[in-house]
Fold this sequence. Notes:
single chain, mainly alpha, 2 strands
Amino acid sequence: MNSLHPVKKSLTKGLLKPFKGKGDLLFMIDDIEDELRFLEQDAVNLCNDSINAGKAVGLSLRKMKQSGKAVGLSLHWRDSSTHGIGIEKFQLAVSVCRFDSIKNELWKLEEARLLFNLRSKMIHYSLRNLRKTLSEIEVIQDI
């Protein structure tokens, strides 16, 4: 499995320390936007990693961008025959799979998918909230 891009330590530290003003917010927004570019590549890597094991059970990992929501980017299992999406497709495929090596690979991929989706949500929610706060600061500066 390809390794995923590690989150920058400065980013995680930055979210935990108090912001001193608009400059700190702008710096953090830039860091998180950089992280979004890595997130997109990690999604591609996970989808590519799922090809062999997924093909054996008729599944594939698909990137889904959810516009209008803070979630932004997530990975979902897709059934090749019915084109249905969801964890139920994964559970069914694993339950009927007869090869332990493929099951183990699918479980690793599912864990990576869950962690990726969590990371994506955290990044998108943080970015949304930082932009909202920046906008509110700019409004009070105009008063």
